[in-house]
Design brief:
The structure holds two protein chains of two kinds.
Chain A lengths: L2 H10 L1 H20 L49 E9 L5 E10 L2 E7 L11 E4 L4 E4 L1 E6 L28 H4 L5 H8 L2 E6 L7 E4 L1 E4 L6 H4 L7 E5 L2 H7 L8 H49 L18 H11 L3 E6 L2 H14 L5 E4 L7 H6 L3 E4 L17 H7 L4 E3 L10 H14 L6 H6 L3 H6 L17 E4 L10 E6 L2 E5 L15 H4 L8
Parallel strand pairs in A: 1-4, 1-5, 6-7, 10-11, 11-12, 12-13, 13-14
Antiparallel strand pairs in A: 1-2, 2-3, 5-15, 7-9, 8-10, 15-16, 16-17
Helix pairs in contact in A: 7-8, 7-9, 11-12
Chain B lengths: L4 H14 L8 E11 L2 E11 L2 E6 L9 E4 L4 E4 L1 E6 L29 H4 L6 H6 L3 E6 L6 E9 L11 E9 L10 H20 L1 H5 L10 H11 L5 E5 L2 H14 L3 E5 L7 H6 L4 E3 L18 H7 L4 E3 L11 H10 L4 H6 L3 H7 L17 E4 L10 E6 L2 E2 L5 H9 L5
Parallel strand pairs in B: 1-4, 1-5, 6-7, 9-10, 10-11, 11-12, 12-13
Antiparallel strand pairs in B: 1-2, 2-3, 5-14, 7-8, 8-9, 14-15, 15-16
Helix pairs in contact in B: 4-6
The chains are: A alpha/beta, B alpha/beta.
């Protein structure tokens, strides 16, 4: 071992070095005592550099993973004042409706929800809203949006949603491409959306990590991040990947797609195996090193045993940011969101999930979920679908407006998602249309069921249902005050609260994003364009 | 599907009942709330259809003997909805070549000779689904390039044998803006449209020389120029897709200098030109949901664009602007316009009487339920613009339409899962 390296390693383990010097001294003493007799043969001196306990992990750059927030942070917002809404119709999305009801929020969380008659006195200094004629619901959650990664204005500059350079880009993250000042954000907010899952597009089999955001403009992506939301990943099957990669090296067919999925997960399994093997070997090495230190320490006092020879620890496998994400999927640490339209495609994805032992959280679009609703519900897989989109591509040819209703009737969790910066502005209306279709075919659905399609159920899809998605004490103050029933085409949000703060007030208008300053109808023509 | 003989016979009877003989049927809907026109709402009224037309409507109308009577209590009857800028019957599946017609890229500039009537497929899967949203006829137009071709106004009834269009030539579809030309120049698009109209005039004036090959080179082919002649005469509406104020003003200037009849489709910034559009009596076909600053040449977008236009006196037509599969959302768009402040009667007119007025020659024959009008009508369970309302019956030319569609049959097949 070259000396420089030897020194480098010795710095970290000074105590061992001292022990080795002592042992060299002992050896010199032994030779010194036999000096009087001429040696028969010259004996090479023992190498006076001992094998250290070498830790190859210290050779690499010390990577620090990002500080993770706890999900409970989502319900704390010291900046949020106390708000009290009284005399309103409060649809909690738990199934309970209070009319006339009261909702109180303070410091980011809901502190009371119930009938007016049971309401405690408003805290001192609280801002009061008379909710007569107003309907209050949880903030709308969209489980499928590309706002920020396909930002407005439309064009090359803001086109950041599909990393179309390889069919598997698990290393990509929507957060990296998120434009936190996208003018589409404020329009979604004005439609009552408080949270959305921003997903990479569906060009790739594995597009990358999703990004759960609070739907309000921010300076940087991290300020928009929903505190503590669990990681998600976007996958896609069917027509899109084969269209994009058909003449770029494949996959060019569904056959190739599922083969490529399996190859990617096989590779991830191999990576995971290497990591696990390494962890085990390193743990063993650390244990031996500790034991050696113990023995050497004991020897120092008793002068009976020789020093324990050091060992070089196992070398960590090369880090692969793509495979480590897929490996996290295999471990169940990431909520898997799969874009599939057809029953047959969903079934292929289920087979792959079974083969590699991971769970699918939800299918997105899932226009044919109604055909296999028994299978999906039995596996506790949610679907995110539209009210009435169909036919824009062949795999969307069998979409029917009753999809969400039939899935709900089966006992499954359905959400109405947008996948559109226009549709996201009226998810309440989309839910109302799906409700109408379901009732027309005899599915006994309540208004609360329809509300859950855009609140509680998407909260579950995103893994944040413990802190938002319903109006319950202790949950986050993500709340919408509507001018009437959210299921009416004529109703619009009056106020939208995010984490207990007013994020949108119709009397004021949506906040102008940076792009719109001096550059939009409202900013250029304040008199002409007051909000109706 | 193979039917047992008895069912097969019943199916045949059913077909006969909904086929030609029904034309002669007299049908009365009684006790209904009837929008005779968007501004004339009749309560507890009766409407009688015979021979494909409305023969009586009012609050004191007697039911003719022998008429089939539908109870209209707690029902609302409106004229059939008209989707005024559609691709129904042209686009079956957007992303499939075989399911797509009349959508051109900008590599060729002029397709004026393209006629929707040559391509329209009345048996498209999307047609009965549009009908399920109360759409009874549509102005179907091609897209792409500077001039996309001749739009037609088509009935959307269940056609065993294709029926004649309501109008073969309802409009000439054109577009301005950066997507009109392959080189992406807005200014050059306008220059080319001017030159094209000049050349059509030249062709019209000197057909004989043209036929003898004694003409300078003209911008388009003979058939394209020929198709543009009615536009020059102001007989055919030039329906111009334009979103930016710059393009809308250019279109207005072109119309004024050449005495053209135009309509603006899209019109994201049309509110900025509201006064001029009203003065020139140029209607705007718009979608009230288009409020994103998507186009760098048209950033002054606002939620209440159509409301501002209406207040200025512009005729506002509401449309999905090209929808085939989503045509049934038309009534929702009208409801959304109301939520932004458009008066209810204007929203109803925007999807019934107004498109009929704009795309008819002379007095419209549909779009309202006055006596003598075509019996295109829809029976609704409640407010037609409200999301919870169902379409309970659709009549086109006095014939009740079957609710059967690809989707309705899928629903029946999967309503209960077979283990």
């Amino acid at each position: 071992m070259p000396v420089t390296e030897y020194k480098h390693h010795m710095m970290g383990i000074r105590r061992l070095r001292l022990l080795h010097l002592l042992s060299i001294g002992v050896l010199i003493g032994v030779f010194g005592s036999s000096c009087g007799q001429p040696p028969k043969k010259p004996v090479a001196p023992a190498l006076d550099v001992a094998q250290p306990w070498t830790d190859p992990e210290l050779d690499g750059n010390q990577q620090r993973s990002a500080q993770l927030r706890e999900l409970t942070a989502a319900t704390t917002n010291p900046a949020a004042p106390a708000y009290v809404i009284t005399h309103a119709t409060i649809m909690t999305a738990t199934g309970e409706v209070f009319a006339p009801g009261t909702l109180m929020m303070h410091a980011g969380a809901i502190t009371f929800v119930g009938p007016d008659s049971a309401s405690p006195p408003a805290p001192a200094g609280a801002q009061l809203f008379d909710g007569t004629g107003v309907v209050v619901t949880p903030g709308i959650i969209d489980a499928h949006s590309h706002i920020g990664v396909y930002s407005a204005p439309n064009g090359r500059g803001g086109n950041d949603g599909n990393e179309m350079t390889a069919p598997v880009t698990a290393q990509a993250r929507a957060e990296y491409g998120y434009a936190p000042n996208d003018p589409q954000i404020t329009r979604a907010l004005a439609g009552g959306v408080t949270t959305a899952l921003i997903l990479p597009g569906s060009a790739n089999l594995v597009g990358g990590r999703g990004f759960t955001v609070m739907m309000r403009p921010a300076r940087i992506a991290d300020e928009a991040a929903f505190p503590g939301a669990p990681p998600t990943i976007k996958m896609a099957c069917g027509e899109n990947p084969k269209r994009v990669y058909g003449d770029k090296g494949g996959p060019g067919t569904r056959m190739g797609e599922y083969a490529a999925f399996r190859a990617a997960f096989a590779e991830a399994s191999e990576y995971e195996r290497k990591i696990k093997t390494y962890s085990r070997e390193r743990a063993q090495w650390l244990a031996r090193r500790d034991r050696a230190a113990q023995l050497n320490a004991a020897w120092k006092t008793k002068s009976t045993a020789p020093g324990i020879k050091g060992e070089v620890g196992p070398t960590p496998p090369a880090r692969d940011v793509k495979l480590e994400t897929l490996a996290a999927v295999l471990r169940g640490d990431v909520l898997v969101q799969v874009h599939c339209y057809k029953a047959a495609d969903m079934a292929q994805m289920l087979a792959i999930a079974d083969e590699f032992g991971f769970k699918i959280r939800s299918f997105h679009h899932a226009l044919e979920a109604y055909k296999i609703r028994d299978m999906l519900v039995q596996r506790n897989i949610a679907i995110n679908t539209w009210a009435d989109w169909w036919g824009f591509k062949f795999e969307a040819f069998d979409g029917i407006p009753e999809n969400a209703a039939l899935f709900t009737e089966q006992g499954g969790r359905a959400t109405i998602h947008s996948d559109s910066a226009i549709g996201i502005q009226r998810l309440n209306q989309e839910a109302a249309k799906a409700l109408r279709a379901g009732r027309a075919t005899g599915v006994p659905l309540t208004d609360s069921d329809a509300l859950r399609w855009i609140t509680a159920n998407p909260a579950w899809v995103l893994g944040i249902d413990s802190v938002t998605g319903t109006l319950e004490v202790g949950k986050r103050g993500d709340v919408v005050m509507w001018s009437g029933s959210p299921l009416s085409v004529y109703s619009r949000p009056l106020r939208v609260f995010i984490a207990g703060e007013v994020a949108f007030d119709r009397a004021v208008g949506a906040p102008l994003t940076d792009f719109e300053l001096g550059n939009s109808a409202r900013d250029r023509n304040p008199q002409e364009s007051s909000q109706p | 599907m193979k039917l047992p003989p008895v069912l097969h016979a019943l199916a045949l009877i059913g077909m006969a009942a909904s086929g030609a003989p029904a034309m002669a049927e007299t049908i009365a809907i009684t006790g209904a709330t009837i929008y005779q026109s968007p501004t004339q709402k009749l309560s507890n009224a009766t409407i009688v259809m015979r021979g494909g037309k409305v023969v009586a409507v009012g609050e004191n109308v007697a039911v003719p003997t022998g008429a089939r009577v539908l109870d209209g209590h707690n029902r609302i009857v409106t004229a059939g909805l008209i989707e005024a800028a559609s691709t129904l019957g042209l686009v079956e599946v957007d992303q499939e070549g075989s399911g797509n017609d009349g959508r051109f890229d900008s590599s060729r500039m002029v397709h004026a000779a393209y006629r929707v009537t040559d391509a329209f497929d009345a048996r498209s899967t999307a047609v009965p689904i549009a009908r399920s949203g109360g759409i009874t006829s549509a102005i179907v137009r091609p897209t792409g390039g500077l001039v996309a071709g001749t739009a037609a106004w088509l009935p959307l009834d269940d056609q065993a044998v294709p029926r004649a269009p309501l109008r073969d030539d309802a409009a000439m579809a054109a577009s301005l803006g950066h997507q009109a030309l392959a080189n992406g120049s807005r200014g050059y698009a306008i220059a080319n449209l001017r030159e094209l109209l000049d050349d059509a005039a030249t062709y019209q004036r000197s057909k004989a020389q043209y036929e003898r090959n004694q003409s300078r080179t003209l911008l388009a082919s003979r058939s394209d120029l020929e198709a543009l002649v009615p536009v020059l005469a102001g007989k055919l509406v030039l329906m111009i897709r334009a979103d930016s104020e710059v393009d809308i003003r250019a279109a207005l200037a072109l119309a004024k200098s050449r005495k053209l009849r135009i309509a603006i489709e899209g019109g994201a910034e049309a509110w900025r030109v509201a006064k001029e559009l009203a003065a020139a009596k140029v209607p705007v076909l718009g979608d009230p949901t288009l409020n994103l600053p998507d186009d760098l040449s048209a950033l002054d977008v606002r939620d209440d664009n159509l409301v501002v236009l209406d207040r200025a006196g512009v005729d506002v037509i509401i449309s999905t602007l090209g929808g085939a599969s989503n045509a049934r959302t038309l009534r929702q768009l009208a409801g959304i316009a109301v939520s932004y402040g458009l008066p209810y009667s204007k929203a109803l007119a925007a999807i019934t009487s107004l498109p009929a007025k704009v795309f008819s020659v002379g007095t419209p024959t549909r779009g309202t339920l006055a006596v003598g009008q075509a019996a295109d009508l829809v029976v609704w369970s409640a407010d037609p613009l409200e999301l919870s309302s169902n379409v309970t019956a659709v009549f086109i030319n006095g014939v009740e339409q079957s609710p059967a569609s690809h989707q309705e049959k899928l629903l029946q097949r999967y309503r209960k899962l077979q283990p």
